[in-house]
Design brief:
By secondary structure, the protein is an all-alpha fold. The chain is 81% helix and 0% strand. It has three domains: 186 residues, MFS general substrate transporter like domains (Growth Hormone, Chain: A, Up-down Bundle), CATH 1.20.1250; 55 residues; 209 residues, Growth Hormone, Chain: A (Up-down Bundle).
Length: 470
């Protein structure tokens, strides 16, 4: 058997730093929901629509700025962009924790999102360039596992922080982590290859891309409150589509595009991103709506609900590195098929098992285990599959494009979850609504498995290593 090359000391150090930062940024998405009720009490004069921007502003900011973050990472250096991103994120976290008005808190959250968007593509690219190509899947498995850990611990950790220290703690906890990362990163992480970009960057595409993506996500996240057929909702969707279309057309013609559309000619990149949309819709529509079901139907507390949901994502955290290690030997395709099938089984079990009376082990724990397997063999494998054939000089740009699609899918999944569940008046109506949502999830997981099985190219990584060594 051919041995895979070692990751190396600097490779492991880079993976650790990038993973810690991804955990910090990812947990901010789930942890804020636990702090939101207390934030509402702190600012009683603020309207519900204003307060919703504390969450919405962050989501829109990250998604709309990722392409710019990828372009800046390639143009100004990976490590420099990574450190700038975490510094901005830390500054936004500090301002969020000290904010004395909802307007200041929203502005601080936008600053947070700017840092998150800047560090993400640079961190992913740094991981890939610091690790031998034959070990990319292992590194991405560990890196991706931190996102699963954030999902597993976010509700529980957020509840403990808010109960013990108040809502400001969910932001201020980031500051010492950022300081430590800024001290360690220059010593542990390589700078990366020099920029391949010329001086004629397409600055016109910057507002086209950010405003276009931002408008589309705004329409998705606000559609429920504005009304899906309201003029404002339709208007922002149309604006977003027009701006993105203009961005695509300009990118096709410009010699130094903000995003290289030639990446979509890589079948692995395209198929993995299509599969990711199906996966994200299934997973996040489950994760985001399940706490409401448990608390409303079973009457469980926020803290108890957090512990009840945690096993599935925690299993994903344990599986993901091992899935990455296996993918280095057999490729992404088999694991992604396992992910889709396992997720579909979990959704079917939820639909058949869960009822008005709480039965944790059969109704929730068992389905969550299958969904945990789906997440553990899905998240990082979708990232690894998308980046498999990307040239090293395009790691940051491809990572930014992949994550932009991912964030759009997250917004769509939440909108689907809210729209399908609605506001049922009885326990029976609630279960019927969730059955429909889990049917959608089942279909999406199966669509993911089928798209990968039919269109994602297989390969034998060990055979390639043997061939390269001759």
């Amino acid at each position: 058997m051919t041995d895979l090359p070692p990751v190396g000391r600097q490779g492991w150090q880079t993976v650790v730093i990038a993973s810690v930062v991804v955990f910090m940024v990812s947990i901010e998405i789930t942890i804020i929901a636990l702090a939101f009720p207390e934030i509402r009490e702190r600012f009683p004069d603020a309207s519900e629509s204003t307060l919703s921007w504390i969450i919405t502003g962050y989501s829109i900011g990250v998604a709309s700025l990722l392409l710019i973050g990828g372009w800046m990472a390639e143009r100004y250096g990976l490590r420099r962009s990574f450190m700038a991103g975490i510094a901005i994120f830390g500054f936004g976290s500090l301002l969020s924790g000290l904010a004395q008005s909802p307007e200041l808190l929203i502005g601080a959250r936008v600053i947070q999102s700017t840092g998150g968007a800047l560090q993400y593509p640079a961190g992913l690219a740094l991981v890939l360039i610091s690790v031998p190509p034959a070990r990319h899947q292992l590194a991405l498995g560990i890196w991706g596992a931190t996102g699963a850990l954030a999902a597993a611990t976010g509700p529980t950790f957020g509840a403990l922080l808010v109960d013990g220290f108040g809502w400001r703690a969910v932001f201020l906890i980031n500051v010492p982590i950022v300081v430590m990362a800024l001290i360690v990163a220059p010593r542990w992480m390589a700078e990366g290859p020099p920029s391949s970009s010329g001086s004629g960057a397409d600055l016109v595409s910057v507002p086209l891309a950010s405003l276009g993506v931002g408008a589309m996500i705004l329409g998705v996240v606000q559609g429920e409150s504005w009304g899906w057929t309201a003029g404002s909702t339709i208007g922002v969707f149309v604006l977003g589509v027009l701006l993105v279309a203009a961005f695509v057309r300009r990118s096709q013609r410009h010699p130094e595009p903000l995003f290289d559309l030639q990446l979509f000619k890589l079948r692995t990149f395209t198929v993995a991103n299509i599969a990711a949309v199906f996966f994200v819709i299934a997973f996040f529509s489950w994760l985001v709506t399940l706490p409401t079901l448990i608390q409303g139907l079973w009457g469980w507390s926020v803290l108890k609900t957090g512990f009840a949901i945690a096993p599935g994502p925690f299993l994903s955290f344990l599986i993901s590195p091992q899935a990455g290690r296996l993918a280095d030997r057999i490729g992404n395709r088999p694991l992604l098929i396992v992910s889709g099938v396992s997720g579909a089984i979990g959704m079917i079990l939820l639909s058949r098992q869960i009822g008005a009376e709480p039965h944790f082990w059969s109704d929730l724990f068992l389905p969550s285990m299958f969904i945990g397997v789906a997440a553990g063999t899905g998240f990082s494998q979708l990232a690894g599959g998308a980046m498999r054939d990307v040239p090293p000089t395009r790691y940051a740009m491809a990572g930014a494009g992949r994550t932009t699609i991912f964030q759009l899918a997250v917004a769509i999944s939440i909108a689907i979850g809210i729209a399908v569940v609605g506001r049922p008046a009885t326990a029976s109506a609630t279960l019927d609504a969730y059955d429909k949502l889990w049917l959608v999830g089942t279909a999406c997981y199966l669509a993911m498995a089928c798209s990968v099985a039919l269109f994602f190219p297989s390969r034998n990584p060990l055979a390639e290593i043997q061939k390269d060594s001759r």
